Amino acid sequence: MLCNMNPVANTAQKETYIKCKKCDTEVFCLTKGDLTPCKCGAISVDGSKDLVRVLGNPEDYEEIQK
User: Fold this and answer.
1) Residue 39: phi, psi to the nearest 5?
2) Higher pLDDT, 62 or 11
3) Max Cα distance, the chain (Å)
4) Cα of 61 vs its chain's centroid, Å
5) Count: domains in the chain
6) CA 25 to CA 52: how far, in whole Å?
7) How does residue 2 score in pLDDT terms, banded at 50, 70 and 90?
8) What is the rounded distance in angstroms from the CA atom of residue 28 to the CA atom of residue 44?
């Protein structure tokens, strides 16, 4: 798996979820340094409410505001 660290700034009051396009898992991480993978392992999320880092191919995920 190619890993790209892509920070996603959360400037809105909403929480940022990252959705894996391969397994449709929505991943949310509250603790910085706590790497949370999706069900299939294509992406992993690390971050907090202010900054979310996604490891994985950019075409394998999308950002969702809730």
Assistant:
1) -60, -40
2) 62
3) 32
4) 8
5) 1
6) 16
7) very low
8) 10
